[in-house]
Write a structure and sequence with these properties.
- The protein has three helices and seven strands; from the N terminus they run ββαβββββαα.
- The protein is α+β, with helices and mostly antiparallel strands and 111 residues long.
- It has a five-stranded antiparallel beta sheet. A two-stranded antiparallel sheet has the order 1-2.
- Helix 1 crosses helix 2.
Length: 111
């Protein structure tokens, strides 16, 4: 699909869907989430990533994958925010290995 051009700004389907989901996550208090620069991927927390592709939000957390309709960013944000809160409260066993691999030993306990 070709991006819609508005002035000098290009708006893609994935970029629009990502913006909507990011806004919903922020409204739910997930302020650490950010779009990584590809118009399709949101990093919510280390190991918890949401990607928009082919009409679906697909989110992964460690080895677990989920998907949600791209036309419903509100419900998707609720589900992702709920899982984010659960992860913050009870950090999974795989987190230490992943954080060391991605950020190195110097990160310590910082999520």
């Amino acid at each position: 699909m070709r991006p819609l051009v508005i002035g000098e700004v290009r708006v893609t389907e994935s970029g629009s869907a990502t913006e909507k989901l990011l806004a919903e996550l922020r409204s739910l208090g997930v302020t650490s989430a950010y779009e990584i620069g590809d118009d399709a991927t949101i990093a919510v927390w280390i190991g918890l990533v949401v990607r928009y592709k082919a009409g679906f939000y697909r989110w992964m957390e460690g080895p677990v994958s989920r998907r949600h309709l791209g036309t419903d960013p509100v419900e998707c944000a609720i589900r992702v925010a709920r899982r984010y809160t659960e992860l913050q409260a009870d950090v999974p066993a795989w987190w230490d290995d992943l954080v060391t691999e991605l950020r190195g030993d110097s990160v310590g306990d910082y999520p």
